[in-house]
Amino acid sequence: xxxxxxxxxxxxxxxxxxxxxxxxxxxxxxxxxxxxxxxxxxxxxxxxxxxxxxxxxxxxxxxxxxxxxxxxxxxxxxxxxxxxxxxx
Length: 88
What we know:
Elements: H1 17-27, H2 32-39, H3 43-50, H4 58-68, H5 72-76
């Protein structure tokens, strides 16, 4: 297969910030309680983040990303399309 034959995958489902946190947590087999214990973020706060009731915030994103072993941007910008030109 040649590079010109490869097409980038298309996004099939848009997810919110809270959904991205939940999906990554579940993929790693963690409960909200276990994630809360590891991050020292109250379970009720994790629940509120996953339900998009409160904003994730930079510091919580960094803390969660450390435990979930991903880059904070994966949590903060779940729908970011890197193929689009930067606004910066």
